[in-house]
Amino acid sequence: MEQNNNSECFSKADIQGQVLIEALPYIQKFYGKTIVIKYGGHAMVDEVLKKEFALDVILMKYVGINPVIVHGGGPQINKIMERMGIKPSFVEGQRITDEETMSVVEMVLVGTINKEIVGLLNKNNGKAVGLSGRDGNLIQAELMKIYKYSGDERPPEIIDIGRVGKVSGVNAGVISALENSGFIPVIAPVGVGPDGLACNINADLVAGAIAGELKAEKLLLLTDVEGVMKETGADPDGNIIREMIHSLNAEETQYLIDSGIAKGGMIPKLKACLKAIKEGVKKAHIIDGRKSHSILLELFTDKGIGTEITE
Asked: Residue 224 in contact with residue 288, Cβ under 8 Å?
């Protein structure tokens, strides 16, 4: 019996040793590099996943990698809006944001969620600093319009979605100063518009723009699906069968957007990855944030997880 226990211990030790050996070349490769992580989905609300996320990010910093966190908060914003009797509305994955909605967005993202993430990292011996895109003109924005095409020769319909912005500039010096001082920047996706007022910007797009400006090694987008999915048929009951696409290049990614295969919230994620790749980020990844230690699995294992997007 004692021999069996010893054998089991040796087996566990061997597995743990292999994990560390597998991680070593990636730690060496990413040392001193910046990795931008868009934090969102279930990983932001499940208490176990929140703790694991914090530990993953802190570990990255301890081994010499510079994580930059951009967080979302859509479900939390929806919850507060519904309590206030405001119905959330979306067009192509973008929240329609009037002045009242903008006040709620900024209150939840900057005043609540950002502080919670910073507190969680600091509680676990990290050194995190929270920022809004309005701090130091970190994220400059211009108002976004969405064009709806009718499929004939008529001009497109212009849909006004309010104070929704797209990134027009990033003050990378603010982030670099924090990185060089040993801090982990945690950024709320609220930008400053040309009129000096706040703009609501999709967190995926902010993460992509920041990654591109910083020439980050990687962009990681945490979401609530395994990755980019494709339909492969139907089962005998007529249910659609989907499987994950493990790898995409920029042309294939653009096709998913243009053809309408990508829908809803996946559209800004793919656009964020494209922007980052075109501006010099080596790889972008859409990964399942519901998996335990998903960040470490993507960064430090040979197989990785999710969908990888390259140029």
From this structure: yes
Alpha helices in the chain (DSSP H): 2-30, 47-62, 74-83, 99-106, 114-123, 172-180, 203-214, 250-258, 266-278, 294-300
pTM: 0.87
Task: Round to whole Å and give the CA distance between 70 and 79.
Answer: 20
Q: What is the biggest distance separating any 2 CA atoms in the chain, rounded to whole angstroms?
A: 81
Residue 16 has pLDDT above 80, yes or no: no
Q: What is the 3-state secondary structure (H, E, C) of 87-132?
A: CCCEECCEECECHHHHHHHHHHHHHHHHHHHHHHHHHCCCCEEEEE
Tokens of 271: 């656009």
Residue 37: left if φ>0, alpha if ψ -120 to 50, beta else—which one? Answer: beta
Where do the domains of the chain lie, and which CATH numbers do they carry?
Answer: 32-310 (3.40.1160.10)
Least confident stretch, 5-19, 21-35, 72-86, 142-156 = 5-19
